[in-house]
Design brief:
The complex is a heterodimer. Chain A is mainly beta. Chain A is 0% helix and 52% strand. Chain A is globular, with a radius of gyration of 14 Å. Chain B has no helices and 11 strands. Classes of the chains: A mainly beta, B mainly beta.
């Protein structure tokens, strides 16, 4: 089983729609969670951290469900500029010298006019 | 914007050449990372460092080597480039805390002929 799993998509969504992605992680001891955005042939950039209580940043809402070991990203009123690959990132740090930041393969989102 | 830089941005080179990809950050981050990413594929961690004189191999085996003589500098070297090394190489850095954000450089796109 992959440590961080995402539906690769692509998700083809009309402009203005609401879209949601989920990501599951295998290590229940994971401590921190992030969503990154990666545009084609560019570097990943932090979109938002994910907090236990859930958090919102404008049109973007992130939720964490520790019991079911998944995190979600909701994008409301989607824009053409939201088209990108969204990477789920989990810090599975467990000590012992291993660095635990684990990236999912990403979900490809295409917003259509 | 993150203060992390990579040079060169693009490199086309012949088989057998020795190459060094440069990565520098001016944020004073302890941890630095090298990832390899093929087009449309996931990120693979190939090296990381906790600080000066610390280097560790990542999840994906790589023929490259790294060094960390100064906090701000984390170069990656290929002694003898091969076509199989053709890929995008992304450098990243962060503070040591588990919840701290990882910042990426713009990447070096390497093509070995």
């Amino acid at each position: 089983r992959k440590e961080v799993e995402q539906d690769p998509g692509p998700f083809n969504v009309p402009e203005g729609a609401t879209v949601a992605f989920n990501c599951t992680y295998s290590n229940s001891a994971s401590q921190s969670f992030f969503w990154y955005r990666q545009d084609c042939r560019k570097e990943p950039k932090l979109l938002m951290s994910v907090y236990s209580s859930g958090n919102e940043d404008g049109r973007f809402t992130a939720q964490l469900n520790r019991a079911s070991q998944y995190i979600s990203l909701l994008i409301r009123d989607s824009k053409l500029s939201d088209s990108a690959t969204y990477l789920c990132v989990v810090n599975m740090y467990s000590g012992g010298g291993a660095d635990g930041l684990t990236f999912g393969k990403g979900t490809h989102l295409i917003i259509q006019p | 914007e993150a203060d992390i830089y990579q040079t060169p941005r693009y490199l086309v080179i012949g088989t057998g050449k020795k190459i060094t990809l440069e990565c520098s950050q001016t944020m004073g981050h302890d941890k630095m990372y090298w990832y390899q990413q093929d087009p449309g594929m996931e990120l693979h961690l190939i090296h990381y460092s906790y600080g000066v004189n610390s280097t560790e191999k990542g999840d994906l085996s790589s023929e490259s080597t790294v060094s960390r003589i100064r906090t701000e500098h984390f170069p990656l070297t290929l002694e003898s480039a091969r076509p199989s090394h053709t890929s995008q190489y992304l450098c990243a850095s962060k503070w040591r805390g588990e919840t701290d954000t990882q910042y990426f450089g713009p990447g070096t796109r390497l093509t070995v002929l």
